[in-house]
């Protein structure tokens, strides 16, 4: 099973791998502080790289930085180099030229083809409006968290394609597509939330704004919802691999990646 997981991971977009910031089973406080400092520094570097025109070398470095955060959960770079090169090339092109941004329609179409292929429930299908609303929510939350001083890979606002007035652009950068796939695959509730907001005609960015410089962040409240894991995509992928074999699932994932980044290679 570990070999299969490693093989799949080497072919998947990095964000499709279900991974959190890695921690050892029993870390001491010094190790935790060192790791937190490292993640903080990497998030600053990722945001800085994504916030300015990139050379192809910069784009490769950006993808490698993201992969490094999940280094304990994915295969080494020698096994993922081809995929990283593909995504880095796409990031280089989409980050430097608005006409080459990846359209939301392409993201929705590519994802829906993958869902049809693996036989997931219709609930996992997406619309362009849902993709846009999901992006809007992630971008608004990232800007807000960054303005509060929260620095992590999940709160780097510069990865999003925006207009000169800081509004969300109609298309996506390659790294932003990875974030979308991460949400749909690992946090399916985020898609459900976007779906409800589309029905209500609501955007998160209408109400959640970055804090002005020097403003004191309000006290935050945290709530937890306990229940069955909401993972229709993962469950369908497991069934598909069981029924058709691992190679068939790998092919479906390769097709998804190629559909998303075609024209950027």
Automatic annotation (TrEMBL):
Extract the signal peptide range.
1-19
Q: Please name the taxonomic classification of the source.
A: Bacteria, Pseudomonadati, Acidobacteriota, Terriglobia, Terriglobales
In terms of domain of life, where is this protein from?
A: Bacteria
Which keywords does this chain's UniProt record carry? Answer: Signal
Q: What protein name applies here?
A: LPP20 lipoprotein
């Amino acid at each position: 099973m570990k070999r299969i997981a490693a093989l799949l991971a080497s072919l998947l977009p990095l964000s499709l791998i279900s991974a959190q910031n890695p921690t050892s089973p029993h870390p001491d406080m010094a190790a935790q502080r060192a790791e937190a400092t490292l993640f903080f520094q990497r998030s600053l570097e990722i945001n800085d790289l994504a916030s300015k025109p990139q050379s192809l070398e910069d784009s490769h470095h950006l993808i490698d930085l993201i992969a490094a955060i999940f280094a304990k959960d994915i295969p080494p770079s020698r096994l993922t180099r081809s995929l990283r090169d593909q995504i880095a090339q796409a990031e280089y092109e989409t980050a430097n030229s608005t006409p080459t941004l990846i359209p939301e329609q392409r993201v929705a179409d590519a994802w829906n083809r993958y869902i049809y292929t693996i036989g997931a429930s219709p609930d996992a299908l997406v619309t362009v409006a849902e993709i846009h609303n999901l992006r809007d929510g992630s971008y608004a939350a990232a800007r807000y968290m960054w303005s509060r001083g929260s620095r992590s890979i999940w709160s780097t606002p510069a990865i999003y394609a925006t207009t000169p007035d800081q509004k969300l652009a109609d298309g996506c950068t390659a790294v932003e597509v990875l974030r979308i796939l991460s949400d749909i695959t690992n946090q399916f509730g985020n898609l459900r939330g976007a779906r409800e907001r589309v029905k209500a005609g609501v955007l998160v960015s209408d109400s959640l704004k970055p804090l002005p410089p020097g403003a004191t962040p309000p006290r935050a409240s945290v709530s937890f919802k306990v229940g069955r894991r909401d993972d229709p995509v993962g469950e369908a992928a497991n069934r598909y691999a069981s029924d058709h074999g691992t190679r068939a699932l790998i092919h479906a994932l390769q097709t998804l990646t190629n559909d998303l980044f075609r024209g950027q290679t």
